[in-house]
Amino acid sequence: MQVVHSIADLRTRIKEYRRKHDQSVGFVPTMGYLHEGHVSLLRKARTQSGLVVLSIFVNPLQFGPGEDFERYPRNTEKDLQLAEAAGADLVFMPTVDEMYPTPIRTTVSVTGLTSRLCGASRPGHFDGVATVVSKLFHIVQPDQAFFGLKDAQQIAVIEQMVQDLNLDIEIVPCPTLREADGLAMSSRNVYLSEQERKQALVLSQSLEKVKEFIQSHPSFSSEELVQLVSSHISTAPLATIDYVEALGYPTLEPFEIGHHPASIIVALAVKFGKTRLIDNLIIQVRK
Ligand SMILES: Nc1ncnc2c1ncn2[C@@H]1O[C@H](COP(=O)(O)OP(=O)(O)OP(=O)(O)O)[C@@H](O)[C@H]1O
Ligand SMILES: CC(C)(CO)[C@@H](O)C(=O)[O-]
Ligand code: BAL
């Protein structure tokens, strides 16, 4: 496994690989502090791509004022061990100056899909994501890029960007990995106190309740799902709901009772103290 810090170096190595091999380049973009969720993306890439490229970059552009950019967890040594064990070939770890050498004047903005959920509660977040992912896609020029469904809105936004900008990249959505008790794995779980960690279980539990409810109530309304999730989360005294919504996926459009889209998402963001966690459930609905 090779580790590179400069864009020029990364490009040279990828070009060299492409010259010698007639195989695809797979790309896994991350912000580091790797866990089994990230590892699952790398393993998936390993099975589908000839060259597996991982990027580790905490992108300042996608953090709002007062968010956790400065204190976002970092552990390069452990990240590199996990990346190597999972089969990464090339790790790109640029500095902020390498990615943004001058004040940024060109950004990528995906409209519509970003008006709800995390787009509404983190204004500017998806412009930061679309801009950095677009830059990374131009630098790496992958055939496939692997993203986790824990960030389901992010996948919808990236897929739209790829379609609108005619990028020749296959976006591969990968399932959310969970801790044994159900909590979705996240780099930010490390912020949780012992009490918060226990109470954070209400998130995955509330989504399990939605699964059961839908099976016995095939003509559910979005309001019923939101109410079910919100009331269960409210049993945790340390939880503050940022949003709970039930929408079509990947359109992220609201739906009316009796007119379910083929696929719906129940998505939530909840704060425990300063720590904001997200989770979701995507369900194929029988018509
Ligand atoms: N539990 C998980 N299972 C599968 N993929 C995941 C999981 N958590 C994150 N990912 C994916 O890993 C990629 C990099 O995400 P990122 O580095 O932001 O990790 P993260 O754990 O989601 O961090 P945070 O929750 O702090 O945003 C994204 O495509 C993300 O969807
Ligand atoms: C895709 C990404 C690496 C862009 O910074 C980030 O949003 C993430 O880790 O999900
Ligand atoms: N996984 C999304 C990155 C962020 O929260 O900024």
From TrEMBL:
- Compartments (UniProt record): Cytoplasm
- E.C. number(s) listed in UniProt: 6.3.2.1
Q: Which Pfam families does the record match to this protein?
A: Pantoate_ligase
Q: Which organism is it from?
A: Paenibacillus ferrarius
GO biological process, any: pantothenate biosynthetic process
Q: How does it assemble?
A: Homodimer.
Q: SUPFAM superfamilies, per this entry?
A: Nucleotidylyl transferase
This one is known as Pantothenate synthetase
Instruction: Name the keywords, alphabetized.
Output: ATP-binding, Cytoplasm, Ligase, Nucleotide-binding, Pantothenate biosynthesis
Principal cellular location given in the protein's record: cytoplasm
Give additional notes from the record: The reaction proceeds by a bi uni uni bi ping pong mechanism.
Reaction(s) catalysed (UniProt annotation): (R)-pantoate + beta-alanine + ATP = (R)-pantothenate + AMP + diphosphate + H(+)
Q: Which residues bind (R)-pantoate?
A: Q62, Q154
InterPro entries xrefs: Pantoate_ligase, Pantoate_ligase_C, Rossmann-like_a/b/a_fold
